[in-house]
Amino acid sequence: MAGNIDSAELNIQHALTIYPDLNTVKNVEEDVIKAHDNSKEIRSIRKERLEVKIKGLRGKVAGKKLVIVGSPDEKEWKEVLRGELALSKMEWITTSYGKAPGSEHISSSIGRNTAAVIVYCFIGHMDSPAAKRKAEQVGVSH
User: Which CATH number is 88's domain given?
Assistant: First the structure.
């Protein structure tokens, strides 16, 4: 980000040298600098809000299982998510294009200790209703 600001500042200074009567360019320079300063504050505020949301969600799902359906189980963020939310377990039901896991497999993975079911991608259209029904029966978010 700093590199972009620096190059923008050089471009603005160059433009002012060529066209010194352009006050609007000077205003743009000031706006770019203000935006950069404000973005630091905004990022800080967003980080604080995210931490509050994660803490609230953690309070609701800690000690429960998260079921994720779809795509190969190769996501590096999986364990980070499990740790951040204090989940007891994450079950990833892998799928690939043309190979749905089957509604029985999905349904058997959903129980009362399941915090949520996330359909990531590549789930068969016929399997979705069965998974949704099972989640509703046990009061799980889907």
Answer: 3.40.50
